Amino acid sequence: MNRVLLARLIDLVIVLFGVSIIVFLMIRMIPGDAVAIMLGANTEITPERMAELNRRVGLDRPIIEQYLLWAGSALRGDFGTSLWTGRPVSTEILLHLWPTLELTFLSLLVGAVLAVPVGCLMAQTRGGAADVVMRVSAIAGLTIPSFWLGIVLILLLSSWAPGFASLGYVPFSEDPVGNLQRMVLPAFALALPILANLSRLVRSAMLDALGQDYVRTARAKGLPERRVVYKHALRNALIPFLTSVGIMTGYLLGGAIVVEQVFAIPGLGRLILGAIAERNYPLIQATILVVTAGFVFVNFLVDFLYIVVDPRVRA
Question: Where is the ABC transmembrane type-1 domain (predicted)?
Fold first, then answer.
């Protein structure tokens, strides 16, 4: 088991190294000049001013040297300073990190937790009316964009419950009720495609598990159907489910960028979009790297759970 985890950890480091190179190079390919944009917002643009600012932010050095300096500082937790605010990039990210983490966690919790009983019910009622209705609903959930669903939910809520706060963000530590009240709609809008996708996956895995010999043996012993389904069959059905949860987390991090704009949540999504508009290289690089690192780390945790659930992987 330790050998398998060590191999996964080495893969994680390699992936992060490759992502850091890709992010660093792609940011340099974005049209526009960050220095010209920054100077244009504050003072007259002259070659001397541009050269001075290029030297100060390190853009006048060879690109390999720029990457080595940036990567070395990033390993120490220093992502540089924002070109617009002058504050450390790590501070900017920490100020916007929690709303995105909370939205992603709530969406994943709603989608993953509900997908298991819904998928099991679909498998148990295969071919019945309940199965058909839930399968059609799952297909509809996959085709509805999260941002469109969010807009519709806001319009409906404004008509049915005008006093219900649905926009903005309040920290949970300051107002738990107000926080959850504002996170209900964006979490549901972001979780619906996850719920639809994972429930169909659980249904397919459960149908395969329910047809195995060990399930027939358990039924032959006279075990209750609920115990057969949720103890014997579900454990094997969760193996592909866990893998998909890791992939869905990446989807949630990407979808949160758009949903945060719809619901005016000050998370990493709004931070990234603002940094791109400003050509704020240090902030863009660090934010994308942090989001990618979070996605890779979640997949590492999924691999660990995969090993726990399926003993065959430990060999």
Answer: 97-302
